[in-house]
Amino acid sequence: MAVRTLTIDNKQVSAEEGTTLLSAARDAGITIPTLCHLEGIYDVGACRMCLVELAGSPKLLPACTTLVAEGMDVRTDSERLRKYRRIILELLFAERNHVCAACVSNGHCELQTMAYTQGMDHVRFEYQWPALHVDLTHARFGMDHNRCILCTRCVRVCWHIEGAGTKNVSGRGTHSRIISDLNQPWGGSETCTACGKCVEACPTGALFRRGATAGEMERDRTRLEFLVNAREKKQWNV
Fold first, then answer.
1. Residue 63 in contact with residue 44, Cβ under 8 Å?
2. Which of 32, 56, 152, 196 has the fewest C-beta atoms under 10 angstroms from its C-beta?
């Protein structure tokens, strides 16, 4: 496969054709912030946290879905990018009902951590405070729509790792919701295998194990990584 040479943050990088900017940067030891990206599943560019600047282009590009090209000159960190990332985070906090102190993932939340690392110390936008419910119909897990950031990580692992196709997205814009099957209570789903992969993939407190209280919900990403690696290496019979 052809190799492309490009520059990322003034560092010359080589990557195979078809590699994303995000992967090329990480292989070179350059960190780009992400929320919707999860190793082992395809990227959709939902959160826009990984936006980067490309010399000669007025647009900011999502590193997770932009493929490397010969001669690219990419910048992953600038005042403009930091400004946009803080705005994105503020909008995520304002759109739903993120009250960290009462959240099961307090202290273990990627959204919360991202806000700290990106210097978001306040929200300039008016909170929407939508009236969203918590689905506790499942015997093992719960879904709190107040904490959801619509990263679709749960949807993608459900479809492309577990193969159940239970989770999906319904609605548009601020009315978008993660649903089970044809928008029925999670506990009534006929396709859910209760594997818990969606819960492990969730970056916030939107999906959780029932019985977890504030600050108790920790994730074990190694379960997902094991499944993906074993499948790619054909370590079991299909």
1. no
2. 56
Domain range spanning residue 219? 101-232
- Secondary structure (3-state) at 110: helix
Q: Which residue has the tokens 């099957």?
A: 181
Joined together, the tokens standing for residue 219 give: 């994730």
Band of residue 136 on the pLDDT scale cut at 50, 70, 90:
very high
Displacement of CA 197 from its chain's centroid (Å)? 14
Q: How many domains does one find in the chain?
A: 2
Asked whether residue 125 carries a pLDDT value surpassing 50, the answer given is yes
84 within domain boundaries: no
Cα-based distances in Å from 56 to 52, 59, 73: 12, 9, 9
**pTM as predicted:** 0.89
Task: List the structure tokens of 120.
Answer: 């978001």
> Does 237 score more than 60 pLDDT?
no
**pLDDT value at position 238?**
46
The DSSP-derived string for 152-220 is -HHHHHIIIII----EEEESSGGG-EEEETTTB-GGG-SS-----HHHHH-SSSSEEETT--TT-----
Phi-psi region of 117 (alpha: psi -120 to 50; beta: other; left: phi over 0): alpha
